[in-house]
Amino acid sequence: MKKTRVLFVCLGNICRSPIAEGIFRKRVTERGLGEVLTADSAATGPWHAGEPMDPRAAEVLRRHGAYFEHTARPITPEDFEQFDLILAADREVERDLLRLAGRHRGKVHLLTEPWGGGEITDPWEGDLAACEETYIQIEDLIDRWLERIVGEPEDDPQAGRA
To answer: Going by CATH, does the domain composed of 4-150 fall within 3.40.50.2300?
Structure first.
């Protein structure tokens, strides 16, 4: 399998995109795919550049064994060159990415594409429960994206689920 680099993007890179990155990293490790799949995350804006992820997002990732050290950063022109798949947390982020992507527009997709579209709940103004809800939504989507990228692993007990 060809090495695939995935970039998760939200508005500030402190809630949704680091949650997605953490879940992706966890699933990749569980499946033993670290040699072929890598991930990072970024923001469409500079608001939180240099800051750690939101403490509520960090707590939810810790509870699920998906925590990693993170520093928020804005997307760069180089990201469009280096990443194979760029997943936007919502339509506003997708519009911004498509505007910036140039010839790399085909790499940009909504994270919710496996659901047929929609939005990921932004927990920024919510509480810990809102971050947990976002985690659950993204966890399902990451599993679906991994099925698209590499297919179901043969020893996956959930293989073949609807």
So the answer is: yes
